[in-house]
Amino acid sequence: MVFESELFVQYIRMHQLDKALAYKNQFIPGTLFKFFPLFEEYDNDTKAEIPDHIFKNSKRFTNLLDEKIWLSKYKTFNDPYEFKSTYYDNPSLLIPKAKIERAEEIIENTRNKYFISCFSDYVYENIPMWAYYSYNHQGYCLRFKVKNRDDFYRVSYVNQKAALTEKMLDELIYGYIDPNLKTAYKLNNTLIHLSFCTKFIRWQSEKEIRLIFEINAEESLGMPVHYSVFGLQIQDIFIGYKCSYEHFNRLLEIGKILNCNVYRMSPNEKSKYFRMEKDIVYKSKI
């Protein structure tokens, strides 16, 4: 069975929000993976330190040790169409300009309330993710057990954007300005959540699942939040096969402190499959 975003939206627009949530959640697996880059801290030519790389690596190690995940605003993402998966249906003919401007203001205000973190649902055959998101296999990947699926959304991959009609804009505006319309307000936020989880079909190899969480910190572009807030529990650390000796030892040390399994990944040139293999270097005592 495949997640159908159209059915999800249909439940929402019928105000069957509990049914929509239950439908969405059944497509969120109990295990998720997140990739992290680690950077070379010295310039190969000058042998000089690279302060920015040292800082980024140190921050990731600190978050890992503190069992925190970094969440970011949509403005920090690299896809120019990120969170811009809708368009207005014949705006010059059907929808008043003032209504579009008001809707855009509401959508932007709502976007800025949410922080996002990206996950995938597989690791061994996900060689592109190892290349792109772990800095050419020099970083690592974490496996999490998912105890609460409510804040997670599976990304849908499409060829075209979805059209916003005038009726949808009316629901958005009225639900935003009237605090008594709690159902409408929840409806609007869920629809905007869905727009956060629609991407161009060329990205589909990522099989992405997104954590989307509302935080009252509109001035910030990102922050670390403890795993427990989202019902996440770390289980394994997978270390890229090109990870440096120093970074490997640091990840191994943290794995022992957190008491989770630590694996070293490598390509299996003797296998007929294009996949990464794992070798255990530390086994959890739980």
Secondary-structure topology with pairs:
Elements: H1 5-13, H2 17-25, E1 31-36, H3 51-65, E2 68-72, E3 86-88, H4 91-94, H5 97-111, E4 114-120, H6 127-133, E5 140-146, E6 152-154, E7 156-158, E8 162-164, H7 166-177, H8 182-196, E9 198-200, E10 208-214, E11 222-226, E12 232-239, H9 245-258, E13 261-267, E14 276-282
Parallel strand pairs: 3-8, 7-9, 12-13
Antiparallel strand pairs: 1-5, 2-11, 4-10, 5-12, 6-10, 13-14
Descriptive overview:
Helix content is 35%, strand content 26%. With 286 residues, the protein is of the alpha/beta class. The strands form five sheets. A five-stranded mixed sheet has the order 1-5-12-13-14, sandwiched between helices. A three-stranded antiparallel sheet has the order 4-10-6, covered by helices on one side. Strands 2-11 form a two-stranded antiparallel sheet. Helix 1 packs antiparallel against helix 8 (182-196) and helix 7 (166-177) crosses helix 8. The protein is elongated and about 60 Å long.
Question: What are its keywords?
Answer:
286 residues, alpha/beta, five-stranded mixed sheet, three-stranded antiparallel sheet, 9 helices, 26% strand
Mean of residue pLDDT values: 86
* Terminal Cα span: 34 Å
User: What letter string, H or E per element, gives the SSE order?
Assistant: HHEHEEHHEHEEEEHHEEEEHEE
The helix-and-strand class reads alpha/beta
Number of helices: 9
The portion of residues forming beta strands comes to 25-35%
**What oligomeric state do these chains adopt?**
single chain
Major sheet characteristics:
5 strands, mixed
> In total, how many beta strands?
14
Our Rg estimate from Cα atoms comes to: 21 Å
- Domain count, please report it: 1
